[in-house]
Amino acid sequence: MFKKFTREESISGLNQAKSSVARGVKGKIADQFPYLEENGILDILLPKKTPMHLAKCPGHISLVVMDNEPLFFGNRDGLYFPTLRLLHKYPLMMPRLRVDRGAIKFVLSGANIMVPGLTSAGATIHDEVEEQVAVAIYAEGKEHALALGVTLMSTKDMRDSNKGIGVELIQCLNDGLWKTLKLE
């Protein structure tokens, strides 16, 4: 999704959000990531007094920007994701799945994650999730997340079928959004 993301070509508008829109976005993020709300992190990341900016990107994607730093992105369906940089700061904020070593190069190149890469000996399903849930993708032997995705089937179905695409990749390390530190 963000493989060729650049500030100049991928953002069509960067506007300050009205307070009602900012509250709505913050509420959706709080509902989706209760860990941030419960630990008071959300008020630090998205304070009331600091203006929130929304950047419009192709494919009906909007970036939530605070102090020129992209923190979250969401699609038209209302599903929000943290950027990988934010996920590295708060790794417990979303459900985790771990792929085996053989899948690392494919995940880093932006490929969707096949179920056998999640159910093999080196892989682990840390958290039970349903389908259409945002998940962090970790790798066997690595400390930090290497990608974000959306499950296309529940983890129970992954174990039962052991074939097909399990997670649609949304963002991975070293893509355009990862390389974008500030939007200025």
Describe the protein:
The chain is 29% helix and 28% strand. With 184 residues, it is α+β, with helices and mostly antiparallel strands. A 6-stranded mixed sheet has the order 7-11-10-9-6-8. A hairpin with a 7-residue loop joins β9 (134-139) and β10. The longest helix is centred in the first third of the chain and has 14 residues, at 19-32. The protein is globular, with a radius of gyration of 16 Å. The mean pLDDT is 88.
Brief synopsis:
The protein is α+β, with helices and mostly antiparallel strands. The chain is 29% helix and 28% strand.
The biggest sheet amounts to: 6 strands, mixed
Report the principal-axis shape: globular
N to C succession of SSEs: HEHHHEEEEHEHEHEEEHEH
Helix content range: 25-40%
Give the end-to-end Cα distance, rounded to a whole number of Å: 21 Å
| Physical arrangement of strands within the biggest beta sheet | 7-11-10-9-6-8
User: Which consecutive residue ranges, at least 5 long each, have pLDDT under 50?
Assistant: none
Rg for CA atoms: 16 Å
Helix/strand structural class: alpha+beta
Percentage of residues in DSSP E strands: 25-35%
Q: Tally the helices: what do you get? A: 9
Mean pLDDT: 88
Number of beta strands = 11
Oligomer: single chain
